[in-house]
């Protein structure tokens, strides 16, 4: 029975350690996306096309 308590406490310590490491990585900007904003201008805007067609129908 004491082995279960040891394994449980070790697993909780490992889980908390990984959580702290993950939170430190998020705060330091490890998961910031620097690539997508630079290529966003290469894709066509769907919203602009919809707005242009709605403006043409209002003037007709």
UniProtKB/TrEMBL annotation:
Checking InterPro entries in the record gives: Cyt_oxidase_maturation_cbb3
Domain of life assignment: Bacteria
- One Pfam family from the UniProt entry? FixS
Q: Does the keyword Zinc-finger apply?
A: no
Alphabetical keyword list = Membrane, Transmembrane, Transmembrane helix
Where are the bilayer-spanning segments?
Answer: 6-26
PANTHER family the record matches? FIXS PROTEIN
- The protein depicted here goes by the name Cbb3-type cytochrome oxidase assembly protein CcoS
